[in-house]
Amino acid sequence: MDKLVTRIQTAAGVRLADTVIKNGYVLDSYNLELIQTDVAIVDGVIAGLGTFEGVEIIDAEGKYVVPSLIDAHVHIESAMVTPTEFAKAVLPHGVTTVITDPHEIANVCGTEGLSFMLEDSETVPMDIFFMLPSCVPSTSFENSGAILTAKDLKPFYKHNRVLGLAEVMDYPSVAETSDSMMQKLNDAHLQNKKIDGHAAGLDSRAINIYKAAGIDTDHECITADEALERIQRGMYVLIREGSVAKNLKQLLPAITERNARRFMFCTDDKHMNDLLNEGSVDHNIRLSIEHGLNPLLAIQMATLNAAECYGLKTKGALVPGNDADFLLLDDLESFSIAHVYRGGKLVAENGSTEGKKRPADAVMNSVHIPELTEDHLRLSVGEGKANVIEIIPNQLVTNKLNIEVDRAPNHAFMPSAKNDLMKLAVIERHHHTGNIGLGIVKGLQFKQGAIASTVGHDSHNLIIAGTNDLDMIKAAEMIEDMQGGLVVIKDQKVIGKLPLPIAGLLSDKDYRTVEKELENLDQALELIEAPTHFNPFLTLSFLSLPVIPDLKLTDLGLFDVKAFRHISITE
């Protein structure tokens, strides 16, 4: 109550503010205009706009004062660092709030993974809110490291940074009203929590079903028509620019002044080097402005819209009663960030923060791979055409091809760099099952060697693509030695690696070291003549996700997403 009294007295001008911002152009987020006014701050909260005096003065020197940014949907694990290190990386990009879905680590470590992420993010100098993973595993057509039931999730709703239920990607379970899914949805409703969607490739009837179930958002739109279809039904659309999926340019035509309040920005999955070099949702803002969007509207989408959608009542606008989270911009058009403040305190000027936590034993030593031989990787393709996964650069969806492939006299598939056809393997790494799914992929385009990763959405089994079996076997051996990570093999030698010993997903090193290791991986990819216009590792990581069309590979075999069943190579 004392803080409330202090805030009111400061607003009334009878008490000095802790801090006053002067000489800036302040964004009025509701009228979308810039105003010249002081901003009074006390106890980390904005007390008033007008003319004020304070103990400390921040001279904005003609800079633009805007709310700090909110990433409306991100998987921190995709940056391959802990929340502590993630904060250090994104704060200089103006992001002081993120809404994260830790379903990657949950698929490996279950509730222990959720607890680790919550604990590690407790004292970081930014606000990290959580949505609880709704689909662990994502489907019953693969093996993940854990299963999260409604009973497992329910206790986490008591945590003050848990906002709701994360992206519901198991559409059949919603449409068929399965008991387990209905219980998860009902628990979220009873707690008055938000429910996120994942509506990749769903038609208008399916969107009706999702919205009727209380699912309010979607970040999987790839066309303007899809976005408008969701907006028409009262959903929010999250416009994504990640390391693989880049949908902003295609969705911008859907935005008008009439519907803009239903759009937000997110990164979803973004590697550390892309976060550092390109940015977080600040990149979405710059790209939107570059393609003609009003800068103030773009900022509103990255701040107020997200805050209102997720019930963050003290975020998103510089008004009395809200948290004093703001940026000083040198320029609106280029969205050039000079300083980042959170709770009225400078948190990023040179990007440094202190403190690093060691991971708990419960999320270590999670990679268990059988000893492989060439027989394990033999893929029979008979005499006819074969079903092949064709990647689409910078997209999560794939094409299903039925084409002729090279084969040995014993009908075993022979990879062909000339025809850009490689062998793909997904190896179960959680429970010693020995499951190995084998398939063929077109479009990865590297000419030699093999690449492998334990970042394989969403079950995060080991996924390997290669031009020959011996390099694929060497990749598997190295992955187990590192207890997870990314590796590039050429002539049975390791030429690039990034160890990820925390659940096979996160590094235990600082974010700058991870950036350097990613740069070394890029150099290794050059040595096997990999393409540079898309990220082979991030593309690889989504080839085992059996909820995004058309064709994927799980540890149980080739999966036709539209038919929602496993198929054979020659079917």
Automatic annotation (TrEMBL):
Its cofactor is Mn(2+). InterPro entries: Adenine_deam, Adenine_deam_C, Amidohydro-rel, Metal-dep_hydrolase_composite, Metal_Hydrolase. One of its GO terms (molecular function) is adenine deaminase activity. It catalyses: adenine + H2O + H(+) = hypoxanthine + NH4(+). Its EC number is 3.5.4.2. It comes from the Bacteria. Keywords: Hydrolase, Manganese. Residues 64-347 form the Amidohydrolase-related domain. Residues 395-564 form the Adenine deaminase C-terminal domain. Belongs to the metallo-dependent hydrolases superfamily. Adenine deaminase family. This is Adenine deaminase. The gene is ade.
